[in-house]
Structure formats: structure tokens, C-alpha cells
């Protein structure tokens, strides 16, 4: 099979670190601050939005890592930095052991081939004037991953992988429904046989019955191809269904990380608990004790001092909550929590 | 925990049995005349609602649930949309036959609606207070400080912090959750008896959604509102509704009490819809899916419109006829050949 040949090719091309670790992507202390400026001619920086602050996680080969959190928590900015659509302010991103943020041209090209993305809205992420075949083959052309005559074959191959017929290649995106468009977007991301696909809310724009089809397809493809996913989502039930490990974000910082079982089975951070309690029940007789968070998420322009969650924290607040920023601390296994209360408990 | 549950259950059964019929819909048909043909958006829907009851209307996009809501408000897109048959009885009178002037008396005062997107429901160039007071003055003679007082009271009712200061705020200065609350305050300004909520939480965050649903539920109980909650999410139904109607291709295919539907879903479509959603408390390796696409409403197959996607279809399905409603339990009916 063509895919197997090309994956074998990558292993020799990029890094030998594969043998030692199964980490595809290692992100450490990643920061992304946006400057806030004032004035038109004499621009002055008057502050900064700390969109992503000190984020550390690892995505492993063939696994799904989920970044969960509400809008404005920095999960999309994190994925944009990882796609190199934004420059990081500080931190390190290792892709199979190689530094990506300071990479040379060749490595960036290789990285772009190996890391692909699927976005939320399949109505705006596909160019309406291009045929599906061209949409899917564009990343192959751009990265020069395949000789031209093999591209056609590869397009049909990935169309089959996502469950579309080969003649879809000659049609335009508007001829397809939302679910089918998301399959096309997925086919495009698979075309260059990536090691990692960033899924930014891949199903939230789709109908309920179609969501299940796409989630099943994503799982099947992971089993077949061993591709890793970085899933950015706010729906915890979807995250739970898909992920091997998870990080919960709040106001640009990770508040809790761990495997799916650890975080969902034994949530330790008050924010994670609140998020879980806010998730909708699967049966009318299930009534969870709901934790109501007062107020709204504060502006990341002026985050609260101390723990960023403390003004809304429903648990009794200790003095240090308002004073010092809690760091992620290990609570057994891969489970880590950034909370003063969890430490003292 | 169990106390809470039993309390909720008694509350549910109390509202179920008591209360007058607030709205009775008989064989409602709303068609859209488009250049592709006649779209039977609502095709023979019958149901009745009691005071203080919350009905969840579930279905995929394009199944006609929004058109159903708009039909009750008589706000169908013109000139394409038309109610071509059936009755909507409200206070003993048929809404379908009302003139536009009479409808204006009903809209907002008797039946109100909250739309999906709070970003577009509010006018960006007027302050929140202006939009709220405008609605209040339609049906009352309040003026000056008393009018503002009422506006503040409404904002307080939907739990907007510092309501008096918020009157001067413009929609862009508020978050999505706050805007949706303001829309809710406007919808409730004239104290309607019936509120139609059309996917009010789809654009909101998880915790904001939970807060909003909690608010809506408490308002509904306090004001004894009859609520029609249009959604595609069975989780929301489980959280707030007493009864559920499942719509497919313009028809109500199953209707029953919420626990009954969750315990014994009968229509294959309902079963699939419930099983296709990932759940936090029940892990499965594979989700159930419904094959194929929702049908286009102007080109429906003859007979049961779900048949091409149905896993339980067979020789019992008559190809030329739509199944009639069959009672499968107390207040629970289904339209499927399996139960004929």
C-alpha cells in the first residue's frame, strides 16, 4: 500500500528519536502573548493579552490528545502556534525531537507535510472555486511529497479512506453536504500521510447523526494509519469518547492534565469539576449536583492575580489562591493539577 | 441526591397532570413554495400543550422544527411560506385564521420566541435598555422612571449582574451568554404564556449553556410558562423537558413523556439519535450512526420517509403509505410500521 511505503520513507528522513520515544509532538512552556497597542503613528504597546501561557504537553504516536476548555481559553491559539500560523513568544516545540519554532526552511516544509489540520466549519475551510480533487492534492503539490503522476492515485486513495467515491474528485464543494465536506477536509489532511492532525472542533458544526459518522471515521483512520490527533474541543463527552489523554485549559493556562481515565474518573481541579457538572445528562433521571460558576471568564488582557480561576472558584479560597500562581503538580501517574487546594488536600 | 430526584419527579408529574390546555395544534401543515418545488416543512403535526409544560422538539437540521415554531408565531418567510392546513387553537381561537393586526396582539404578549443566534437577534446600534423598553411600551403605559424600573427588573430576572448600569450598554459590549439573557428578557417582557425557544444555547459555551438552561427552567416554573424547546440535542431535552417530540422530514414520528422516550425509544430514528451522541457516563467504543443524509424535503420518498436510512426497515413497511400514529404507552405514540 502506498501509505505504508511513504510512512516508512519518513522514518528514515526525519529524526532517529522515533526509536527512543513515541512522542510525536512535545510542547514545553509555550507562550503566546499578543501586544495591545495604542495610537496610530506613534504606536505604543500598552499591554499584552496572554493568550497562551506556559503550556506543556506531549502528543504520542497513534493517540489522541485533547485540549478542552471554553471559548477564549487559548486552545485555538495554541493550535495556531503549533501550525506555525503564529509565532510563539517563548517556549519550545519539538516534533519528533526536532525544534520546530527555530527550524530552517527544509525542516518547516517537512513539518508542514507531517502536520495537517481539519477546521471546524467545512463551509468556509474548502475553497468553493476549486474541484475536490485539486483541494485534496494541493498540499501534495505544495510540499512536493509525491511525483505528479502519482497524485491522482493518491487522491482516489484518500477519498476511499474517508468513504467517498472516486468521482467526488471532479465535483465542487457546494455539491456536498456538511458531513461530506468534513470528509473532504479530512481527506485533504490525510493526503500527505501526516503523523499528526490537528482537529479544531471537527464535529461541532455538524448535525448530530453526522457527528457520530465522523467520530467513528476518525477513530477508524487512527487505528488503520496510526496517526496522532490533537483534538481541540469544548464538548467534554466528545473529548471523552475520542481522547487518550487530555489537558483542560482556562485563561491560557493548563489547569489539569492526565489520561482520559484519570481526569474524567477523578477530576481534581475545581474548574474541571465545574465543566463536568455542566455537561448535559444522558438520561432525564440523572441529576448531577451542578456547580454554578459565578460571573464570566475574565479578560486575558488583565488576568486576575494569583490563580487565574480564583475569582470564580466555588471552593473555599485559601489566601495563597489570590497571591501565587499554582504550577502543575503531579498527582500520581500522568495526572497533574495546578491548584493550591488539590495540593493541600 | 435521591431527594432532589424525587422532588424533580413529583414536580414533573404535577405539572404534567394539572394545568389547562394552553395550545392545541391539529394537523398543522406548513409548506414552502420554492423554485425547486413544494417543501413540506411541517406536514401534519398534531399535539397539545398544557400550561407550565415543557415540550422538547428534536430533529436534525432541515426536519422542519424551526418552521414549526415560526408557524405558531405566523412569522414564516414570505412569500414562500404558507400554512396550508390544520388549526392552532389558542384560547379557543384558531391562530391560523387571525389577521396580521390580530397576530400583532398575540406575538410577544401571548406567544413569544427566542431565536438561535443572540448576535443577530439584537440591534447593534441601540442600547440594550432602549430595545427592552421599546418592547415593554407596546403593551403597557409605563413611562419615565417606572419604565426603567421595569426594564431593570426584567434584566434582574434573567440574572444580569448590575442591571441598572447595563441598560446603557450596547450588545457588542456583552458576551454571548449575556446577550442571550437580554434576548430572553425581551421575549418575556410582555409576560407571554407560551415561549418558543429555538436552539437558544447552540452558540454558547458549556458552562454558560448550563447557567442559561438553569435560568430558563426556573423562570418557566415560576411564571408557569409553556415552553417549546427546539433543539437537536437529547442532552438538553433530558435536562429541561417534560415531553419530547421527535421530528423527521416534517412529521412528528414519536411523541411521549421524556423518561418514557429515554427508557423505551420505539422509533428506529429516535433510538439512533439517542445512541449516536457520545456520553460522559456511558463509554462505548463505537457510536451508533444513521447512514445516509437527511432527505431533502421537496423530494421525499413515498411511504415512510425514514425508510431509506432505517436499519429495521423490511417487508412490514408499506411502500405507498405513511404509518399512522400508534399508541405504545401512556401518552406515548410512534409513527412506524413496526407498531401498526
Description:
The complex is a heterodimer of chains A (345) and B (340). Chain A is an alpha/beta fold and 345 residues long. Chain A is globular and about 65 Å long. Helices cover 33% and strands 23% of the residues of chain A. Chain A has one domain: Rossmann fold. Chain B is α/β, with parallel strands linked by helices and 340 residues long. Chain B has 2 domains: 193 residues, P-loop containing nucleotide triphosphate hydrolases (Rossmann fold, 3-Layer(aba) Sandwich); 69 residues, no CATH class. In chain B, strand 7, helix 9 and strand 8 form a beta-alpha-beta unit. The two termini of chain B are 41 Å apart. The chains are: A alpha/beta (345), B alpha/beta (340). Chains A and B meet through helix 7, helix 8 and helix 10 of A and helix 1, helix 9, helix 10 and helix 11 of B.
Provide key terms for this protein.
heterodimer; A: 345 residues; alpha/beta; Rossmann fold; eight-stranded mixed sheet; four-stranded antiparallel sheet; 11 helices; 12 strands; 33% helix; 23% strand; globular; disordered N terminus; B: 340 residues; 12 helices
Content of β-strand of chain B: 15-25%
Structural class of chain B: alpha/beta
Q: What global shape of chain A is seen?
A: globular
Question: Please, how many helices of chain A?
Answer: 11
Describe the largest sheet of chain A: 8 strands, mixed
Summarize the structure.
The complex is a heterodimer of chains A (about 350) and B (about 350). Chain A is of the alpha/beta class and about 350 residues long.
Per-chain topology:
The complex is a heterodimer of chains A (345) and B (340).
Chain A lengths: L1 H12 L9 E16 L5 E17 L3 E5 L6 H8 L7 E6 L2 E2 L5 H10 E4 L13 H12 L4 H14 L16 H13 L5 E5 L7 H18 L2 E6 L2 H7 L2 E6 L2 E7 H6 L4 H9 L50 E2 L5 E2 L2 H5 L1
Parallel strand pairs in A: 3-8, 3-9, 6-7, 7-8
Antiparallel strand pairs in A: 1-2, 1-4, 4-5, 9-10, 10-12, 11-12
Chain B lengths: L1 H16 L3 E14 L2 E14 L3 E5 L6 H9 L7 E10 L2 E2 L5 H7 L4 E4 L3 H4 L6 H12 L4 H14 L5 H4 L9 H13 L5 E5 L7 H18 L2 E6 L2 H7 L2 E6 L2 E7 H6 L4 H8 L50 E4 L2 E3 L6
Parallel strand pairs in B: 3-8, 3-9, 6-7, 7-8
Antiparallel strand pairs in B: 1-2, 1-4, 4-5, 9-10, 10-12, 11-12
Helix pairs in contact in B: 5-6
